[in-house]
Design a protein that fits this description.
- This protein has about 120 residues and is mainly beta.
- About 15% of the residues lie in helices and about 50% in strands.
- Strands 1, 2, 3, 4, 5 and 6 form a six-stranded antiparallel β-sheet that branches.
């Protein structure tokens, strides 16, 4: 499955939950976002452990970009689906984009761009 990224506005933060399992202590917090689409949808997303701490820093009305995993599991012949966040970025690409697009002439200008391969590697990995 490819990376799924949702962008929207936080509409509700649910109460954090904590507990202990056989694997140790855990914490989670659910939050609801409303997507930025023609027909917006509200989606409840769960943040576990360190992501729950990031959720606690959010406020209703914040724009967010959330990377998620979707997983379903069966229990007693019924299916349950979880939407789990694995990255949360406050602010969204839509909010950060300029309100007016650059002129075509400015975006097509390649003057001063060096296309030669100098053998340097700018990649961080």
């Amino acid at each position: 499955m490819e990376n799924i990224i949702l962008e929207g506005k936080v509409v509700q933060l649910l109460e954090p939950q904590e507990g202990t399992s056989t694997r140790g202590a855990w914490k989670k917090q659910d939050f609801v976002i409303e997507t930025n689409e023609n027909y917006p949808k509200k989606i409840c997303i769960t943040g576990f452990q360190d992501i729950a701490e990031k959720v606690a820093e959010l406020n209703a009305g914040d724009d967010v970009k959330v990377s998620i995993n979707i997983e379903s599991r069966e229990y007693n012949s019924r299916w349950y689906t979880d939407v789990k966040a694995w990255r949360i970025e406050k602010g969204s690409a839509a909010a950060a984009a300029p309100s007016t697009p650059a002129s075509p002439a400015a975006s097509d200008d390649i003057t001063g761009v060096n296309f030669s391969d100098d053998g340097g590697d700018d990649l961080p990995f």
